[in-house]
Design a protein that fits this description.
The chain is α/β, with parallel strands linked by helices. The chain has two domains: 2-190, P-loop containing nucleotide triphosphate hydrolases (Rossmann fold), CATH 3.40.50.300; 194-281. The chain is built from twelve helices and ten strands. It has helices at residues 37-46, 61-72, 87-91, 107-114, 128-131, 167-170, 178-181, 194-205, 209-223, 236-247, 252-261, 268-281, and strands at residues 2-3, 51-54, 76-80, 92-97, 100-105, 117-121, 143-146, 151-154, 160-165, 185-190. A six-stranded parallel beta sheet has the order 1-10-2-9-6-3, sandwiched between helices. β7 (143-146) and β8 (151-154) form a beta hairpin. It is elongated, with a radius of gyration of 21 Å.
Length: 283
């Protein structure tokens, strides 16, 4: 199981040969590997294998992809998937301009041409007929047919497809088809242990150790409410947001209510239980 930690401080990267690409990261995203996830990803990139990141919301999947794009010195094109995402949104379409009709590449097509890492966040939110477009890029062919232009693109050797999803949440709604899942090398992510999560909250928010430790202890208790109907447990990201509010001068109770409790549930019973846990933690 891969667990997230963040490095202490970002370090600027030397300018790339092609800084004209707006999706190229200029500074190192904070990430500190705790297992072999970096080596696995690097080998997947070298072997031209697609990668699937599995883990709960807010556990560091996106941060990891950003770190790896910087580490490999590759452009990163991120696509937030949703129910209305169509194949044309990924591939491209003809548009009418002042000089006539012209073709505009979609983000996936740009990544294939430029040799970028294309990251589809929460891929199962997209429609199945959209996901099928990815299949030719995830096997030995590594091609992208453009039906509207009659062109078939061969992916750059540096192109890599990365997708992510939350298996715990999606299992209740929808999931990836086996024919799609087996096209990816899967890396499992999870929330870090309490001590490491405390350090992450401190580094990301500027909170002192006592505050960060109390918030992590509260989060550990809140995560047990999953068995009582809480659809999503609090993430490390929510803890950081709460800590930032506290550091900015917001009262602890108000910060926890706004950044930790309200985003998780509207159910009166669950909200009441979470408020009680906050009161017990910060006496």
């Amino acid at each position: 199981m891969v667990q997230l930690t963040l490095s202490k401080s970002p370090e600027p990267r030397a300018p790339s040969q092609d800084e004209s690409q707006p999706w190229r990261l200029a500074a190192e995203p904070w990430y500190d590997p705790t297992a072999d996830e970096v080596t696995l990803f690097e080998q997947c990139h070298a072997q031209q294998l697609a990668v699937l990141l599995k883990g709960p919301t807010g556990c560091g999947k996106t941060r990891f992809v950003e770190h790896m794009a910087w580490r490999l010195d590759r452009p990163l094109i991120t696509i937030a998937c949703h129910d209305d995402l169509t194949a044309s949104d990924l591939i491209g379409r003809f548009l009418i301009g002042h000089t006539g009709t012209h073709w505009v590449d979609g983000p996936l097509t740009r990544a294939v041409r430029e040799g970028a890492i294309c990251y589809l966040d929460e891929v199962v939110e997209a429609r199945q007929d959209t996901i099928v477009v990815l299949h030719p890029l995830t096997d030995y062919r590594r091609i992208l047919p453009l039906d509207k232009t009659g062109e078939t693109l061969t992916a750059s050797p540096h192109f890599q497809l990365v997708v992510s999803y939350n298996p715990g949440y999606q299992r209740m709604l929808k999931d990836l088809k086996p024919s799609t899942r087996q096209r990816f090398v899967a890396l499992d992510f999870d929330f870090p242990p309490a001590e490491r999560e405390t350090l992450i909250v401190m580094r990301e928010s500027g909170a002192d150790h006592a505050t960060a430790h109390a918030l992590v202890s509260l989060c550990q208790r809140l995560r047990t409410l999953h068995d009582r109907g809480l659809a999503e447990v609090p993430s490390t990201r929510l803890l950081i947001a709460t800590a930032r509010l506290i550091v900015s001068g917001i009262a602890v109770q108000s910060a926890c209510q706004a950044a930790l409790i309200s985003p998780l549930s509207d159910d009166p019973a669950l909200v009441g239980a979470m408020r009680d846990l906050v009161a017990l933690t910060f006496v």
